[in-house]
Design brief:
- Strand 2, helix 1 and strand 3 form a beta-alpha-beta unit.
- Helices cover 31% and strands 15% of the residues.
- The protein contains 5 helices and 9 strands, in the order E-E-H-E-E-E-H-E-E-H-E-H-E-H.
- Strands 1-3-2-6-9-7-8 form a 7-stranded mixed sheet, with helices on both faces. The protein has a two-stranded antiparallel ribbon with strand order 4-5.
- The chain has one domain: Aminopeptidase.
Amino acid sequence: MAPEIHEGGDDRLLIICDHASSHVPEDIDLGLESDDLDAMHIAVDVGARDVARLVAQAFDAPAILATVSRLVIDLHREPDHPKLVPTESDGHAIPGNVGVDKAARIRRFYDPYHGAIADQVAAHRPDLIVSIHSFTPQLATSDEVRPWTVGILYNRDDRAARFAIDWLRGQGIETGDNEPYSGKLLNATLNRHAEAHGIPYLAVEIVNDAISDPGGIHHWATKMEQMIVQVRNSLASTGSPAT
């Protein structure tokens, strides 16, 4: 199943969104009690697709967006990750995924998505890759309220992340440094397509209640655009674009 691909004139920047869609193909039955997946954070990163689209449009940059729900297959996991095809998520059982043919889902959904990103990077090596995600302010299975508005994640390569975190905090935005998740544990897509090639990257997490309506989406897309300009300028000034 092909991802959503937007061509762009400025291929020095690449925008991606692993959890852009809540779509479940008709021939897959997840066995969920509710089929209202558009508002369920376990199914889709609420608001992330629209932010990613707007950011790509603002820079005339290429964008590659997932077209299948993370409940069908989580494209932001390694192929051998135990939660690649989840059987439970934040307290919700997903009985339809028990015993499924994971190799078939990898061929159908995972390989086309990551193949498209790999082809883009190989053909037009970007100076920066930006991945847009959103997170829920509180998990159903936790009493902890997450205090961050935005999080910036990274694994070993924190070149772009350091500039982004400093800029966001300078704007008075409560910014997580490898929060609400650690990129040292959850960074599969960017480990593969950015870090492995020496390309600076930003893994951005925005709290989903801030981008659940058009006004919030436009506001945070603008903030992301400003942040990316700052990061690109800072990388260029320190001689740290893709190596």
